[in-house]
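Appendix B. Extra example for self-study. Work through it before the problem class; the solution is given directly after the inputs so you can check yourself.
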Amino acid sequence: MSDSLFEKLGGEGAVNAAVDIFYRKVLSDDTINHFFEGVDMEKQAAKQKNFMTMAFGGPNNYTGEDMRKGHAHLVERGLNDEHFDAVAGHLKSTLEELNVADELIGEVLAIVETTRNDVLGR
Amino acid sequence: MSEITFKSHKVTCHPDETLLDALLREKIDVQFGCKAGSCHTCLMKSSDQPPPAEAQEGLKPTQKQQNYFLACICKPEQDMTVSPANDSEQFITKATVLEKQPLNNDVIQLKLKCHDSISFKPGQFVNLKKPDGLSRSYSVANTPNEDNILEFHIRSLPGGQFSQWAKNELEVGEQIPVSEPKGDCFYIPERQDQGLLLIGTGTGLAPLLGIIKDALAQQHSGPIHLLHGSRNKKGLYHIDEMKTLAEQYPNFHYTACVSGEMPEKDFEQGRVNEIALNKINDLKGWRVYLCGHPEMVNDTKKQAFLKGASMQDIFSDPFLVTQNEEK
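Solution. Structure tokens for the complete assembly:
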């Protein structure tokens, strides 16, 4: 069923429309943007795109282990539930801005929620 | 830990160390430049098996298939046997020096005539090689022409191995090997009513000039804003040329900026990127070109994005200075 979520949202086109808006919100948020200091913007945007594809139920290569390893150095720097919530919140407002239906937003956030423990190394 | 075989040397590459760094650590003579995957000076070929995919970023599909890779961004996953890409793959033609003249105290304009026809997009760069084998990347400042002439703006840096040689020793009539054009900071003739914002420091003007001339030649109708900055007036050049261009083309706007303490008449005071971002408040739908000082380029990339420019519409060419390693 997750494939059809991706299609309902608009597939890769939707991801492309959303990534810039989402990443902009994240970089403008002072509670979390310090985690992105010194990071190569284009490489990070590519990662955001992968993340969004996954969140939209689309084809992706992320495993729980990848999420765990990828965020471990941030967890060491204090990454916690509040930061996770902030990012999820930005994804929600991005989709609202793009006029995505509420149930679909709910499905996306549910997928994101399943990554919480891996991202926070729990 | 992976074992790297390079010519007659066997080197152990530590985890998280790039192949290039491992070779340099062992004082092995190897060509390199930007250490960031852009200039392709450290291009090598893996003889036994495919290199890590990340080490092939930016290479052409034909190069990838032949197992070429960039040593500066290669973190070996297994033992590798490698060799440097040979000259004929790297330097595709020779060029004769036609003209060499100073543009200001530190910058010379170099005009070369290529022996073979060379096709490039204005804004791209090529690698030029000195007789001792050292090569450096320079942006092309002109547009493609029938005579295959390439124009460069070269700043002589203290201790600059190539720039000092170019300034003091290189003579008209001498020949220099030239590489294939590289880089993706160039003009694409789509959305011709789009606003273009071009920001450059020092010799960052070179690629921007090419891009502007290209855009105007292709009848770009949207506003084109060029901001050129340096610490002081002495660091700028082509000031009159840019003013003249602005008079000729109503959609082209030029602002010269000085960031140092002394205010100058006719120049805006402040950092060129700050002045630019204040001038155009909302960059949504704009295309942005950033060339020159790496810090300016990276900072402004982010600021431009936050002001609404789409990631795909931001083109950057940071002029990375190669640190001289001890030989």
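Self-check: Chain A has one domain: 5-119. If your reasoning did not lead you there, revisit section 3.
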